[in-house]
Structure formats: structure tokens, C-alpha cells
UniProtKB/TrEMBL annotation:
Residues 1-29 form the signal peptide. This is D-alanyl-D-alanine carboxypeptidase DacC. One of its GO terms (molecular function) is serine-type carboxypeptidase activity. InterPro entries: Beta-lactam/transpept-like (IPR012338), Peptidase_S13 (IPR000667). PANTHER family: D-ALANYL-D-ALANINE CARBOXYPEPTIDASE (PTHR30023), PENICILLIN-SENSITIVE CARBOXYPEPTIDASE A (PTHR30023:SF0). SUPFAM superfamilies: beta-lactamase/transpeptidase-like. The keyword rRNA-binding does not apply. Belongs to the peptidase S13 family.
Length: 515
């Protein structure tokens, strides 16, 4: 619609007001209607927060249906996305692998099987299943025993060749090495719980009658535990794996109990140790050592397990912002498209998917967003969010996004403690992202008019505690947005019931706090 001269004057006045009260590069109203002008002024005021004076803020808001830009400030600037990277990884994985994709874990044997004896090797072959628990390896061992095998004369071969041998992202911080959210990536791995934190073990310590009791979940002799902690009047304990080893040192004081999720050094060795223990428990004896290698082409299958489909895995992946799922899916995409289970091959798939959907400005270095060299613009994220709405798989993917203010952990996810009792609660569906000095929130919200909107908020290089409350204020204001008229109660439109939470890491990366 063409503007009248009166509309142009009104637009200029709004721009002048926004400039005087907004951030260093404020947006102007892109539509002269009172509702959009009011939204522009409010978002500029929110972004004028002093914590962002030395930082960077990029924000874009668009109509999900028409693509009309309602607000933009520094929307074209490249910024660190943190876990907003998972929006691209998850969408590319669903498009490439399909919602029905399942990871397979199989047990094979080489040589000849004579009665209860396998004259050859037993092979455990994985394709990256992050949902494998100790009980699943036990179930595979039970299948082997049920097939009549009691003795294997050769070795236990751990076949993780579906992926390459590069375990850690090339840009990941060295001091994250033992953190479960930066665990090594392998085609053979195991999780300690149904969050499916693949490649990690839960190490627990408890004060019991003046003594300390140490345990692991799953029960395993893979880790070597060195306990230097003592009973004290408070929990001030550090549980940390030593660099490049399987040795976990516990130090400090323990008053009651404490648990830490610890990344293992070698997920292939960890998984195969669980399987060997399970075999022994079912009366299957492997005479040789455990080694790594590829299964012979003529090896015969004895047992198999498939994971849940990707449509279900999306829930723990996206709701809890699981980094390991993102990296495993990245390598799985590379394996399917290029026959190479590598980061390079998988990231090319993600990049090609983004470009095919109108996103040109991006730099993807990993699947999860742990790398500080990942770079997206708010505009590129909003463009992706708009484009995927036309995909046949969109509803399943959309349902996997965290939902603001919903306290159910597998519904609200990393947004479950945010925006409660506001217009955004059970409305905003968005992906969070957090690193030190980085926070992002991008997704969908329905306005007060019932209009679906997409938005991307990226805040970088601040020195304060995490300003997630700024994201929440913007999202709440979008939930209150109406084109018809300005919101009258300024206090109400900026009110946010925001629960405090640690800000430098994703909520679900802060086990065992579970904020």
C-alpha cells in the first residue's frame, strides 16, 4: 500500500523518537500503523539496556505468513549463535535423514559357529545411536546368548567405522573436555540416562555414616575413580576427569550427596566395556581382547537393535539442547549423503540445506553451536524459520522446540522456567542459545491478533551476567503485539515474570541443578 504524505510524516516522527530512545543502531517503524510504531518504540527501549552498551544486539521480527519485516536492528550482522545453530542442524537432519530414521546397533560374528562356539571374532557395530543405555547392551548380549553362543575363541571387535575417528570439534574449548555437553563423538557410544547424554557417566558421591560412598551410573569399571574427598559440613566437591585419561578425581568436601555428569575419554571403549560385561552376565565368554576395527564383509548377524525414530529423538535433542545429538546427526548426514561420517561432510549438508532455503550468510563449524566460530545473522535465522513452515515435517519439528513457561521438562525444555504467567507462556516456541558472553532466542510466537510471527534475538559480547531477561521482554512484547492500536498499559506490556537462572550455559547443560 502506498503511503500518504501524512503517513510519511508520522513515520518520520516515529523514526526520530526511536532514534532518541533506542540502541546504537535503532530500528524504525517499517509500517506506519500505530501498533507497529508502538512495537518499534518499545523494542528499541528494551534494547537500550545499559548491559548492551558495549555489546552487540541483532533482532528481527517478521510475519510468518507474509515474510513482512515488522522490526529489525542489525539483522544482517554476523553473530555467534550458540545453540541456535541447532535450528539449522535439526532441520537439515529431518530433511536429509527423514523423520523415520533410526540408528542401528548390531552384533555379528566372523568365522564359523559350531554349536555353542564361535571360532572367530564377535563384532559390535554401531552407527552413532545416542540412545543406547547399559540395559540395551545387556539386551543385545541376551540375544547373543539366546542364539546359543557360549564361547567366542577370538576377539571382541568394536566397529565404530561408520564415523571417522575425530572425536572433538576443532574449535571446542579445551576446558570443556570433561564436560558431558562436550563429550567425544563416536559411532559406538552409551548414555547414562534417558536424557541420552551420550558419551558420559554419572559419578555420584554420598556421605554415609562418616564415610564416603562412590558410585557410577551405569555401573562400570571403565573409569578409574580416585577419591580424595572428605566428609564435611557442606557440599563443596569437584568431580573431574584428568586430561586424556579415564581417571576421575574427586576432591573437596561432601555433606550429603552430589552427582556430576562426566564425559568419558573414549566412548567406543566405554560402550564395548559395557557390552563385554553384559556378555559375561549372560554366560558368553570372549577369550580374546577387545580391539577396534571394521567388521569383515562376510560377518553374520547375531543380534540387532534400532533406536527410536528421529521424530521422537527430536524431543530430548531440541527441548534439552543436547549437543551430542547435534554432532551425531551431523556425521550421520555426511555418511548418508557423501558416504563419509565426518564433520566436513555433514556440515556441507547443513550448509547446502540452508542455502537451498534462502539462507546465504552463515558459517557453520559444528552441529551444536559449541564453536565460537559459528556465525549467523538474525535475518538468516528468521529466513530459515519462515521457510521450514512449508515443509511436510514442520509440525513435528515445531513441536520439538522448547515452550515458554511450561514446567514439564520434556515440553518446556530450556524455556520451562522463563516467561511464566505472561502472554508468552505456552505461546513462544523457540530455541535458546547460551555461551559466556552470548545468548540467543529464535523461534515463533502468536501475537494478540492471532498473527504468527517469527523472531530472532542475538546478544553478543556483553560483560554482565546473561541478559536473558531482555530476550524475554521482547518475546512477551511480541505476544502482546496488535496491529490495530498501541498497547495502553506500558507497565503491563513490559512486565515479565522471569525466573532467575544461571546464564552462561544452556539450562539443561547445568546438571544436576536442572534449572
Amino acid at each position: 500500500m502506498r503511503r500518504t504524505s501524512a503517513s510519511l510524516v508520522a513515520g518520520a516522527l516515529v523514526a526520530a523518537l526511536a532514534w532518541s530512545s533506542g540502541p546504537s543502531s535503532p530500528a524504525i517503524a517499517l509500517d506506519p500503523s500505530p501498533g507497529v510504531a508502538d512495537l518499534t518504540q518499545d523494542l528499541n527501549q528494551i534494547l537500550a539496556d545499559s548491559r548492551l552498551t558495549i555489546g552487540r544486539a541483532g533482532v528481527v521480527v517478521r510475519s510468518a505468513e507474509s515474510g513482512e519485516e515488522l522490526y529489525a536492528t542489525d539483522a544482517g550482522k554476523l553473530m555467534i549463535p550458540a545453540s541456535n545453530t541447532k535450528l539449522f542442524t535439526s532441520a537439515a537432519a529431518v530433511e536429509t535423514l527423514g523423520l523415520d530414521y533410526r540408528f542401528a546397533t548390531t552384533v555379528l560374528h566372523s568365522g564359523r559357529k559350531l554349536g555353542s562356539v564361535v571360532n572367530g571374532d564377535l563384532v559390535l557395530r554401531g552407527t552413532g545411536d545416542p540412545t543406547m543405555l547399559a540395559e540395551d547392551y545387556d539386551a543385545l548380549a541376551a540375544q547373543v546368548a539366546k542364539a546359543g553362543v557360549k564361547v567366542v575363541t577370538g576377539k571382541l571387535v568394536a566397529d565404530d567405522t561408520w564415523f571417522d575417528s575425530v572425536r572433538l570439534g576443532q574449535d571446542w574449548a579445551w576446558d570443556d573436555e570433561t564436560a558431558y555437553y562436550a563429550a567425544p563423538i563416536s559411532a559406538l557410544t552409551a548414555s547414562p540416562d534417558r536424557d541420552y547424554d551420550a558419551g558420559s557417566v554419572i559419578v555420584s558421591v554420598a556421605a554415609d555414616g562418616g564415610k564416603l560412598k562412590v558410585s557410577t551410573t551405569p555401573e562400570s569399571d571403565y573409569l578409574k575413580i580416585v577419591n580424595r574427598a572428605t566428609v564435611g559440613t557442606s557440599n563443596n566437591v569437584l568431580i573431574e576427569r584428568q586430561h586424556g585419561t579415564a581417571t576421575v578425581v574427586i576432591s573437596g568436601t561432601v555433606a550429603s550427596s552430589y552427582s556430576e555428569w562426566v564425559a568419558v575419554d573414549d566412548p567406543t571403549a566405554y560402550a564395548s566395556s559395557l557390552f563385554r560385561k553384559a556378555l559375561a552376565g549372560h554366560g558368553v565368554k570372549v577369550l580374546g581382547k577387545t580391539v577396534t576395527g571394521a567388521a569383515p564383509k562376510d560377518a553374520k548377524e547375531l543380534a540387532a537393535r534400532e533406536s527410536m525414530p528421529l521424530s521422537e529423538l527430536l524431543v530430548p535433542f531440541m527441548k534439552l539442547s543436547n549437543n551430542i545429538h547435534a554432532e551425531i546427526l551431523t556425521k550421520a548426514m555426511g555418511r548418508k549423503v557423501a558416504g563419509q561420517g565426518t564433520w566436513a561432510a555433514g556440515l556441507k549438508v547443513s550448509t547446502d540445506f540452508a542455502k537451498a532455503n534462502g539462507v546465504e550468510v552463515l558459517n557453520i563449524r559444528d552441529g551444536s553451536g559449541l564453536s565460537r566460530r559459528d556465525g549467523f545473522t538474525p535475518a538468516s535465522i528468521a529466513r530459515l524459520l519462515t521457510a521450514v513452515r512449508a515443509k511436510p515435517w514442520f509440525q513435528t519439528w515445531y513441536d520439538a522446540l522448547p515452550i515458554a513457561g511450561n514446567q514439564d521438562r520434556f515440553v518446556g525444555g530450556t524455556l520451562r522456567s522463563r516467561m511464566r504467567d505472561t502472554a508468552a507462556a505456552n505461546n513462544v516456541r523457540a530455541k535458546t542459545g547460551s555461551l559466556t558472553g552470548v545468548t540467543a532466542l529464535s523461534g515463533y510466537v502468536t501475537s494478540a491478533d492471532g498473527e504468527p510471527l517469527v523472531f530472532s534475538i542475538m546478544l553478543n559480547q556483553y560483560l554482565s551476567g546473561s541478559p536473558k531477561d531482555i530476550e524475554d521482554k521482547i518475546a512477551i512484547r511480541l505476544a502482546q503485539f496488535t496491529r490495530a492500536a498501541a498497547v495502553n498499559d506500558a507497565a503491563d506490556r513490559r512486565r515479565a515474570a522471569i525466573a532467575e537462572q544461571p546464564g552462561d550455559l544452556e539450562c539443561s547443560w547445568l546438571k544436576p541443578v536442572q534449572c
